[in-house]
Amino acid sequence: MLERNYDVVVAGAGPAGICAAVEAARSGAKTALIERYGCIGGNLTQGYVGPLLGGTCAGTMSEEIARRVCPVPGAVPDFEWAKIALTEMVADAGVDVYLQEAVVSVEREEDRLCAVIADGKCGPIRFAADVYIDATGDGDVAYLAGCPYDMGRTGDGLIQPVSFMFIIQGVDEDQHLLCEHEEHHTDLGDGREYLDLCHRACKTGELPKNVNIVRLYKTAYPDERMVNASQENYINPFDPTDLFRAEASLRRQTNQIVDFLKNNIPGFADIRVKGSSTTLGVRESRRILGDYVITVEDVAAGRLFDDAVVHHAGFCVDIHNPDGPGQSEFVDKRPTIAGAHDIPFRAMTPIGVNNLITAGRCISGTHEAMASYRVMNICFAMGQAAGAAAALMKTHGISSTRALDVALIREHLKSRGVKLDA
Q: How far apart are CA 153 and CA 157, in angstroms?
């Protein structure tokens, strides 16, 4: 087995993982980034997810990434350019990247991880490090380490549906239709209202049975729209047969959605699919239990914490219905906007392991709370905080996240320009 030794090992090269690895490397730690796919970026590249949603305080790495990947501020990123820009960002930071390497096992002794094992084209590689960051989205490293976790909503355990995002081109440039949320009503100019049209088409079968809104976002190009509409319910994201069932259904849904737009929306008659995600968009899976569990009450109240490493995180409680179309609690209405709340470092420290940090949607929180903080701008900030914490542990010879003074993380982030006190 090949052996690799690092100060910090980051698993998962999506939004949280990229920021974690770059911050750790920029802070002087010898850093490895392990990614199961053939390019970095996760939902920001292969997932075709846009625009960059959610807010945090000023000065986080989300601002740098937005400048790199969004040709038009506020529009959907250019996903092909993002593949180049993010690769350059990681390479310039001096991160060692291992592509097409899936984490398959870990070595643990008592309360510490000793190694992460990834497998790929040349067989297994054993990654040994002082500190590990789980930015896999699914909490794979923490799960393999035996950390406790929750999954799904209380009662039936159902998770939010999976989706495919795609971009259409060929829209008449005089047609400016956008639809960004459940209350974005638009008069089509002929007596029809766009959202009402979507709801009726869902009921009649012109749209898939779980699709009652076809969200349309602007890109950098006037003849394009980003489409967020398809969804498949009752999927176990860890069951390969379920994953293919979702893939087959969502590809069919893409054609049905495009036909709906062509047949009903002025200026859309000549549209075609320009590109689509190459992997399922999974909104929810494992939530790794940490020393603190973020609740929806924390989110709604805009709760602040003394050990905050992400400040003023803000996005709506966006629960795509696990059991049908629309929102689980608001159906045809836009979800309630959350208060600008903090994410405490304690929610990123998994129970039972002292040298592992989580970042991204797999941190410790409830089903409802995760629905707010799972979006990219907040994940960027979580990743940056995790990378800073890991590098500081190495620099100061601290072996446990629980022995790390969070004031050190906060001061480090503030030295980077993050406005944690604003």
A: 5
